[in-house]
Design brief:
Blueprint (H helix, E strand, L loop, with lengths): L27 H4 L6 H14 L5 H6 L7 E5 L5 H6 L7 E7 L2 H9 L11 E7 L15 E5 L7 H14 L2 E15 L5 H12 L9 H10 L4 E6 L2 E3 L4 H18 L4 H16 L4 E12 L8
Parallel strand pairs: 1-2, 1-4, 2-3, 4-5
Antiparallel strand pairs: 5-8, 6-8, 7-8
Helix pairs in contact: 6-8, 7-9, 9-10
Length: 303
């Protein structure tokens, strides 16, 4: 997710259908899924909604195939992407929400998007599975795949699999809020750059893409003939977002200390100073993300 660390055992008139597994290759590791706390996902939802690059919706609408869209949201968490996007698109919609965590799927099904922009109905179903290992069968009939804060916690192989599945289904992909590896805090502090570098290294651990995700995904989708658009989607956090900023600071500095234990003393003092400034309304933070829209050829179209 890029801005908060998952913790073991605690990961991240419309009716939702029961959870089911279909079209995904599961692994033992996936069954031991790390959870993102739903309270963190709820806390960040307004900032995510404000940050996403709405200018990408114009080319998405222009390329939209005829008929009601079938949208697959992968790594859906508590369903915030659907709640943001469904009211911005016209016409009836059917959303399939994918996540490997049944706990998060429960929250997503309990609070689905209610209606499209023009009041048309939105229906929802949920599917449990390892979203990093989608098969083309899982996306059969899809017109759009969406994800939020997902790419940076995938490996290059998982991104390649996602791009191939979208190409096989002939559907577009709107993948938002991938960390860009740039953070700005005001006022500045001498340790800002060192904490940021350690955090970025932590994001790249065990082969995860972290700040390299959008570049890797751009190449992966382009290799299948997709036209790729990338736009910035920064969080801009001020006094009104103090609770989110505090939670983000703890996760950001904590990941840096985990990555570089020699930073623990200085980083702990840094964190205390930054939290005090946040609580006093004297800290502004910009966390840079990028949104990616990949528009491919329809399945069975000309090559």
């Amino acid at each position: 997710m890029g801005v908060d660390r998952p913790v073991p055992g605690d990961r991240t008139g419309t009716a939702a259908r029961p959870v089911r597994e279909a079209g995904m290759r599961r692994t033992e590791a996936a069954a031991e899924a790390v959870r993102y706390p739903p309270e963190w996902l709820r806390l960040r939802e307004p900032a995510d909604a404000a940050a996403r690059a709405r200018e990408l919706l114009e080319p998405l609408r222009a390329a939209r195939p005829a008929g009601p869209p079938a949208i697959h949201d992968v790594g859906c968490g508590t369903g915030s992407m659907g709640r943001w996007l469904a009211p911005l698109l016209d016409g009836p919609q059917h959303w399939t929400l994918h996540d490997r965590d049944p706990y998060l799927l429960h929250f997503a099904s309990a609070d689905p998007p209610r209606a499209a922009a023009d009041g048309s109905p939105v229906t929802v179903e949920t599917r449990r599975g390892d979203i990093g290992r989608l098969t083309p069968d899982a996306l059969r009939g899809a017109s759009l795949v969406t994800a939020s804060a997902l790419l940076d916690v995938l490996t290059a192989d998982e991104v390649a699999t996602l791009a191939a599945a979208c190409a096989g289904a002939g559907c577009a992909a709107l993948l938002t809020l991938s960390v860009a590896g740039r953070v700005e805090l005001a006022p500045a502090h001498p340790l800002d750059a060192e904490i940021a570098a350690a955090f970025d290294a932590h994001q790249r651990r065990s082969g995860l893409l972290g700040p390299d995700a959008v570049a890797v995904a751009t190449d992966a989708f382009a290799a299948h003939g997709a036209t790729v658009h990338v736009r910035p989607s920064p969080w801009r956090l001020g006094p009104d977002e103090a609770a989110l900023t505090e939670r983000w600071l703890r996760g950001w500095a904590g990941a840096a200390m985990e990555q570089r234990p020699t930073l623990r003393g200085p980083a702990a003092r840094y964190l205390a100073e930054r939290l005090a400034a946040c609580r006093a309304g004297e800290l502004a933070v910009t966390v840079h993300h990028d949104d990616l829209l990949a528009l491919g050829r329809p399945a069975g179209g000309d090559t």
